[in-house]
Design a protein that fits this description.
Chain lengths: 421, 222
């Protein structure tokens, strides 16, 4: 431990520790959406910083790896009383710790923000943080391995480019990381622990690899252990699933009101938004039919048959992306329109390209959100839809509340008279 | 000063070629070979786009591989300046500095030329234009980084800048980028070109600020 402490105190990485800490913190604190107050979102936000931090870590590890050669100490290290592998293990250990510190500081900051309300689901935060830790370990191992064998001037660039390319391209398919952490998804902690162990094995295996084996006579036997370690880490990563759908909880968080809305317990921070929009629903006139109960996405499952194979997939009535009232207003307006026009022939509406129901839905969305300027963006919107939204916007902004009531009543009557039995 | 001239005259008398010696002390061929390799990779998979996280929360934000590899090519010439005799070279005279400038110019042009020649065959003209425009910017950042941290660490600033550009550079408006995102904005974007050239200018200035010059400017001792 004394040797490790000595390496920690003398490593040149400590000079760049401040920018290394600043990078994940800046990424964490500038992230869109409110991750504060939700453990899975906090964990995912922290884990996201590992995407970029690992790129720098791969380069830094490659640079540190070549420090013996850089200072012309290869021969001294090889002839030292302490085995060369042990000496390198200390250097690698200190490098790993110093490169993990910025990430763990970001994790601690994320924890501190959400711990103030301490909602349910802290194990999800841990899972996502572990996910990012595995990425950091793999990046350090990759960088260190390349730093040992490539030209010391270029190894860091090769390491960071190859790691970035791997992380951004095939890394996407093996879910090494996530962009967000919705409550209905969970990091598979067991699988991630397996990945963590194999990443650590890979890290340890590099130390035992022969130094510069390709320079004079290749020591193929010496490569067996590190290559096996690397292969095990890759196989463990490729064959495990990092994130999966969660089971429906027995006791979801249901907010009673005009419409009972059930949330994931981890999304308790959304209760004020739900209550606010439920308050708006209660002010709607009686000709609007409201559903009795709505579920957040993931709290329902539906059996789907595709290609002769039956499987269940997640369902739900609403989402509240980034805690925005607009996401909820959009889904609530859909639910209310579906309930109000339940007996209508929707196929006929579609065939006739009648955007009347869409106009009403959009008006409802504006009414619930109490604004006509949505926070979300839309793309590839048809001409008819755009016109319908313009009409809804004009009605909401230009008509008096009383006139809006009459107008919506007339529109609804027309749609019902035309398409509903 | 007279003694310097005499010394230089003596060197020339013995057919000493500083630029050649300067290049031989470095492994420029590795930089050139890597530029060709990156060109091959760009031609092969340069158009491949991977989803990347962005601060704007744009779920559709992607990073084409050519942008990543261009950063690498732009950094190579600065890394190629690395020498095991760095400490000794600090006291190099204008002969040494002239050789350094020639070496950097030739290696930059060779790397950029080789990379573009190999990669351009598989890329559209506008993309080749963006690559050509962003290379000076990356080189400038690498020179600044190398000057202050040592040439072996010339990758630090470009790597950090790439993270910043990728994460904060997207406006989240359907693939649009901030005005300072010089590595991704359209090929005919003037602010990006100016920024790229300014970065190069900054890099060249930093590279020419030797410890002697810096000491003279600050009034301190070399």
């Amino acid at each position: 431990m004394t040797a490790l402490r000595l390496h920690l105190r003398t490593s040149p990485l400590r000079w760049i520790l401040l920018p290394l800490v600043a990078l994940p913190l800046a990424i964490l604190l500038s992230q869109p959406g409110s991750w504060v107050g939700s453990w899975p979102e906090t964990g995912a936000a922290v884990q996201l910083s590992a995407f970029f931090l690992s790129v720098v870590a791969a380069g830094a590890a490659a640079w540190m790896s070549g420090s013996s050669s850089r200072h012309g100490l290869d021969e001294q290290t090889a002839a030292a009383a302490v085995p060369a592998a042990r000496a390198e293990a200390y250097r690698l250990g200190a490098t790993t710790v110093l490169l993990l510190v910025p990430y763990l500081i970001a994790a601690a900051v994320g924890f501190a923000f959400t711990a103030r309300t301490f909602p349910a689901g802290i194990q999800l935060w841990f899972g996502y943080v572990l996910m990012g830790t595995v990425v950091m370990l793999l990046a350090v191992a990759w960088g260190w391995a390349l730093g040992r064998y490539f030209d010391p001037a270029y190894s860091a660039l090769i390491a960071l480019l190859s790691w970035f390319a791997f992380r951004a391209f095939p890394g996407e398919t093996v879910d090494l990381g996530v962009v967000n952490g919705p409550a209905w998804r969970q990091p598979d902690t067991e699988a991630l622990l397996v990945r963590f162990v194999f990443a650590a094995v890979f890290l340890a295996a590099i130390v035992w690899a022969p130094r510069r084996p390709m320079r004079r006579r290749p020591n193929w036997k010496g490569l067996v252990f590190p290559v096996t370690g690397a292969a095990a880490a890759v196989i463990a990563t490729m064959t495990t699933t990092g994130v999966s759908d969660r089971h429906i909880p027995e006791n979801p968080l249901c907010v009673a009101g005009e419409v009972e809305m059930c949330l994931w317990p981890e999304d308790s921070r959304h209760v004020p938004v739900v209550e606010a929009l439920d308050g708006r629903l209660s002010t709607l006139p009686a000709f609007w039919r409201l559903p009795e109960r709505l579920h957040e996405y993931g709290l329902k499952r539906q059996r789907v048959s595709r290609g002769g194979e039956v499987f269940s997939q997640l369902e739900g009535d609403f989402r509240i992306p980034a805690g925005s009232k607009w996401g909820l207003a959009l889904d609530l307006s859909n639910a209310v329109i579906a309930q109000t026009l339940k007996s209508c022939d929707w196929d006929s509406i579609r065939k006739a390209e009648d955007f009347g129901p869409e106009t009403l839905r959009k008006w409802l969305e504006f009414y619930l959100a109490e604004s006509s300027t949505p926070e979300y963006r839309t793309s590839d919107v048809s001409q008819g839809m755009q016109e319908a939204w313009s009409v809804a916007s004009a009605a909401f902004t230009e008509m008096s509340p009383r006139r809006q009531l009459e107008w919506t009543r007339q529109q609804l009557d027309r749609v019902k008279a035309t398409y509903c039995g | 000063m007279d003694s310097l001239v005499i010394a230089r005259g003596g060197i020339e008398d013995h057919s000493f070629r500083p630029s050649r010696t300067f290049a031989l002390a470095r492994r420029a061929w590795v930089a050139f070979a890597l530029a060709v390799l990156l060109g091959v990779l760009t031609a092969w998979a340069g158009r491949y786009e991977a989803p990347v996280p962005t601060a704007s929360g744009d779920g559709d934000a992607t990073l084409p591989m050519w942008r990543l590899l261009t950063m690498g090519v732009g950094t190579l010439p600065a890394l190629g300046l690395h020498s095991a005799l760095r400490g000794l070279e600090e006291v190099g005279t204008d002969v040494h500095r002239r050789a350094e400038r020639r070496y950097l110019l030739c290696l930059s042009l060779a790397c950029a030329g080789a990379y573009l020649a190999v990669a351009a065959s598989a890329l559209d003209l506008p993309v080749a234009g963006i690559i050509l425009r962003s290379l000076p910017g990356w080189l400038g950042l690498a020179l600044v980084s190398g000057r202050f941290l040592g040439w072996r660490l010339a990758w630090v600033l470009p790597a950090g800048a790439l993270c910043v550009l990728v994460y904060w550079g997207s406006t989240g408006d359907g693939g649009h980028h901030e005005w300072w995102e010089f590595s991704a904005r359209p090929h005919d974007d003037v602010p990006s070109l100016l920024l790229s050239l300014c970065l190069l200018l900054g890099g060249v200035t930093a590279a020419s600020a030797t410890s002697w010059r810096a000491a003279r400017l600050t009034g301190g001792r070399a």
